[in-house]
Amino acid sequence: MEWNFRSAEELLAALRAGEVTSVELTDEAIAGIERDDEVVNAICVPDFDRARAAARGADRARARGEDRPLLGVPVTVKECYDMAGLPTTWSMPQHRDHVPAEDAVQVSRLKAAGAVVLGKTNVPLGLQDIQSFNEIHGTTNNPWDRTRTSGGSSGGSAAALASGFGALSIGSDLAGSLRTPAHFCGVYAHKPTLGLAATRGMVAPPAQALPVDLDLAVVGPMARTARDLELLLEVMAGPDPLTHGIAYDVALPPARHGRLADFRVLVLDEHPLIATGAAVRAGVDRVADALTDGGARVARRSPLLPDLTEAATLYTQLLFSGTVARFPVEAHEQLRTRAAALGVDDRGLDATRLRAMVFSHHDWLQANTRRELHRHGWRQLFAEFDAVVCPITPTPAFPHDHDPDLMRRRVDVDGVEYPYFDQLVWAGLATMPGLPATAIPAGRSPEGLPVGVQLIGPMFEDRTPLRLAELLEREIGGFRAPGRGVLPGARRARGAGHG
């Protein structure tokens, strides 16, 4: 039996029933990587010897009667997580020999749950791109079309899942880095509520792994089904045992509803700052139709929705002021000179990005105060709605673009070009206030590329968008393996019905 595209839930059931061993699952996953990853380039740091040893240990544990949440399931880990004995470079050439001595807290949780880690997945330089390519490990291709990006910065993890390289992966999200690759590759991802899952050990080298409370950035699960997302989130959720974990454990509330008919959903497909491409709009409409057909209460607008232009501006300010905080002093002075030359009436996102790069602490505090007002606005909206459905980016996966000057790049939305980073406005809608958001497949473009949407939920009610994702998966379908010519081996194994 072929196991590489089965869900983690199915693998666990088979392991418990004695239908397969972890060694067999691991060997098959490694064989798939060795066969197909030359085309995809998702696994940048394989760890096959230790994976086989962990699989043997999982089988022995199960024979003793143990049963842990992920016991014996093959998984992957994003390169930016520390794993003892493996390089953690964030794809920065100057740190190619950086090998941490301890596992990140989330890697420790994976191992404690019994998962078998196959290796680490590719990322962009410093995690700062919507694509995944770098000087050390090369380019990760989209499994559906190798001429296109798999997304970033968790692009290697999304491509690995779409290719059958492990049942689960863990990634991170600051600018859509979980959701965008899931959207581009046709898989599932969940950006948890800010602060829900500990991030220690997900740190750029050579910084020490400390229990720091990050702003905007989260770590989260990726999978091929919605139920698997919740399975992995249960393992990942919880405070750092060195700080808040001393005082409390996490007990997430149940989803607000169990039936599609009971959900109240706001559906958005237009943003004032960037157009939505036809393929993505069709994906949003498909989800809206499924909600309506299932009896959910669906609205297309609400006066309670926080202002989208101000939300995008605040997100841009918070994101870029933090991104450049560690720039060398001389670079900072160059940015200050450029920002001073901007016209007072220039309020576009490019100008907002540049001004944010030279924010003072006073400037940041003002932006943070406005963020709190937006958070209050979202609380009021979620008193009337249970979730918001909207795009993740305006387009499906775009062709590889390795222009080193990111400000020179453009994104093409149905023939109209926009600055490259303008496509982040939809991802920022959930990130800026710290809301949970689940990325789900919502169909394919006319060219056959995956299209996803995100389900934004109330803060610390992560089970609500996850439950909605599961219900929608039943209505509109979910992951489908890529077709012939991209992953020929996987295609033959899965059969003609999965193209």
Automatic annotation (TrEMBL):
The Enzyme Commission number assigned here is 6.3.5.6, 6.3.5.7
GO-annotated molecular function: asparaginyl-tRNA synthase (glutamine-hydrolyzing) activity; glutaminyl-tRNA synthase (glutamine-hydrolyzing) activity; transferase activity
Extract the Gene3D superfamilies matched here.
Amidase signature (AS) domain (3.90.1300.10)
* Family annotation (InterPro entries): Amidase_CS (IPR020556), Amidase_dom (IPR023631), AS_sf (IPR036928), FAAH2 (IPR052739)
Domain Amidase: where?
A: 24-464
**UniProt entry keywords in alphabetical sequence:** Ligase, Transferase
- Which SUPFAM superfamilies does the protein's record reference? Amidase signature (AS) enzymes (SSF75304)
> Mind telling me which GO cellular component terms the entry cites?
endomembrane system
- Specify the superkingdom: Bacteria
UniProt-listed PANTHER family: FATTY-ACID AMIDE HYDROLASE, FATTY-ACID AMIDE HYDROLASE 2
From the Swiss-Prot or TrEMBL record, give the protein name.
Aspartyl-tRNA(Asn) amidotransferase subunit A
What species was this sequence derived from?
A: Actinokineospora spheciospongiae
